[in-house]
Amino acid sequence: MAGSMSRAASRATGTTTRAVRVAALAACAALALSACGSTKDAGAAGAAGGEGKVGVVLPLLTSPFWQSYNDYVPKMAKEEKVDALKTVNSNSDPAQQITDINNQLNQGVKGLVVAPLDSAAIAAGLDQAERKGVPVVAVDVAPEKGKVAMIVRANNVAYGQKACEFLGAKIKTGKVVQIMGDLASVNGRERSEAFRTCAKEKFPGLKVLEIPAKWESDAAASQLDTLLNQNPDIKGIYMQAGGVYLAPTLQTLKSKNLLKPVGDAKHIAIVSNDGIPQEFDAIRKGEIDATVSQPADTYAKYGMYYIKKAMAGETFKEGPTDHNSTIVKHPSGLLEDQLPAPLVTKENVDDKALWGNNVK
Question: I want to staple 160 with a disulfide (CB 3.0 to 4.6 A). Which of 91, 195, 207, 345 is the partner?
Answer without folding.
Answer: 195
